Amino acid sequence: MSGFASFLNSITMFLVAIVVIIALWSAVHYFNVFRAKRYAKFLSEDEFRQGIRKAQVIDLREANAFSNGHIMGARNIPYSTFKNFYTDLRPDLPVFLYDQTKTLSMRAAKFLNKKGFKNISILDEGYQKWDGKVKKG
User: Parallel, antiparallel, or unpaired: how do β-strands 70-71 and 134-135 relate?
Assistant: First the structure.
């Protein structure tokens, strides 16, 4: 095998490995979303906005991100402290969760479901795509 053919073979193997890694990551991500749909509803921005007045809206981001801007009416319970302060939530009222992308929201929803909460919703696109009213400070 010539040096160039060996180089092409190495590049091909590298690209195949990258594609396999991306496929596995995507499969795990979509499996987690599928699992989360058993215990939480994923709401579009419009659906989230419509139910916001009747729900406990929880921002799971850290305090500095919350103070830089958050959904109007949300309260901050950072995910890092969520297991200590989830008892501040009422299980008889809807809980709307959001974070930057929805990853932390899915984890928090699973935890709340295990603690007996039944009406849990997640902002589908996360705060990064939120176009509604925000409050800073």
Answer: antiparallel
CA distance 82 to 136: 22
Of 77, 53, 80, 56, the C-alpha closest to 66 is: 77
For the chain, give the longest Cα–Cα distance. Answer: 71
Tens of pLDDT, residue by residue over 76-89, are: 999 999 999 999 99
User: 48-64 pLDDT, tens per residue?
Assistant: 999 999 999 999 999 99
| Residue pair 83/55 in contact by the 8 Å Cβ criterion | no
